[in-house]
Amino acid sequence: MLDAVQDADVLVDAVPAYSAVVDVVAACRAFVAVSGHASFTVGAAAARIPQSVASRRIAALERHLGGRLFDRSSRSVTLTPFGRDLLPSARRLVELAETLRHDAERARLRPLRLAVPQVCAPRALAALVAAAREHDLVLDLCPADPAERVELHRALEVRAALLAVPADEGAWRVPLGLAASAVPPTPVIHVETLRAGRADRDPRRRVWIQPEDDVPHVRDPLTRLRDALGLRPGQVSVAATLFAAAAHAYGSDDLLLCSRAQAADFGLHWRPLGELDLARGYDAVAGARDDARRVHEDLHDEVATSLGAA
Fold first, then answer.
1. Which of 29, 89, 108, 306 has the fewest CB atoms below 10 angstroms from its CB?
2. Confidence (pLDDT) at 104
3. What is the pLDDT of residue 99?
């Protein structure tokens, strides 16, 4: 490879007047093709260019290199001594250009492994992957909980991650409310309604926090509200999984803390919280600045949809 680079430097240095008009690589490709077939007609066909284009490129290369590459006659085309001396370097330059093009294509198609929240709906994630392809970006999605996404990013097991951050610090904001199996009688749900009277013997209603919201900027305000209202500690609980949390809402009067989109996916009835303005916040972080930029800019709307962002 080093020899190829040095040979390429020799050819380029020999073209002091090089400009956009003269494409050294294209001209060398025509030169190599014609020399290999000893024919402008056959060589041009092998290079997939018209014969007239091959002739113009080789003539331009001869002018800039300062010597004839071929002896032309009505019957044959043969290399001049000057052409024979330059042919190995020209061939290496063409091979180097092909290697560069192949490496660029491979790098462009290298999947961007992106850690995403497990709560994202499969259909929305499929749309995100499809949208990325329109931007020549191949996504390899890795669903994970908030702490797992942080670790995946830290350990460089993903190229980028959608991390949970306070809502006012993120690029995407997902409002949270409470969802129930029965239609709530009010347009908002107040946590204080979970307080039971002394004569109430039924099990006390609970708010279930799913793992995605087991982060300080979501969990802590809700537990502080619980304590301020005098609710029992177990009336605001973190479930082991999203499905366990949703199952509690299905099978009782318990409430699920979730986004409006999640409530719709589960067939639950969603209302905003009366006492708090809770929201998930997300930001895209990556080891390479361009990876983060592509997620933030090229895929901003599709990421917002997959998160259920406002």
1. 108
2. 74
3. 82
Q: What pLDDT shows up at residue 98?
A: 86
Say if residues 59 and 83 touch (Cβ distance below 8 Å). Answer: no
Architecture category of domain 171-280 in CATH: 3-Layer(aba) Sandwich (3.40)
Residue 7 confidence (pLDDT): 45
pTM: 0.68
- Answer yes or no: same fold for 2-107 and 112-168+281-307: no
2-107 has which fold? Answer: Arc Repressor Mutant, subunit A (1.10.10)
> What angle in degrees, to the nearest 10, is found between the helix axes of 2-13 and 24-37?
100
Q: How far is CA 230 from the centre of its chain?
A: 45
Q: Which residues of the chain have pLDDT under 70?
A: 1-22, 74, 107-109, 196-203
pLDDT score at 4: 42
What ranges do the domains of the chain cover? Answer: 2-107, 112-168+281-307, 171-280
If one looks up domain 112-168+281-307 in CATH, what number appears? 3.40.190.10
Please give the Cα distance from 223 to 21 (Å, whole number): 70
Q: Are 202 and 235 in contact (CB under 8 A)?
A: no
How confident is the model at residue 102, as a pLDDT? 75
| 59-87 residue pLDDT tens | 999 988 899 999 887 677 889 999 999 99
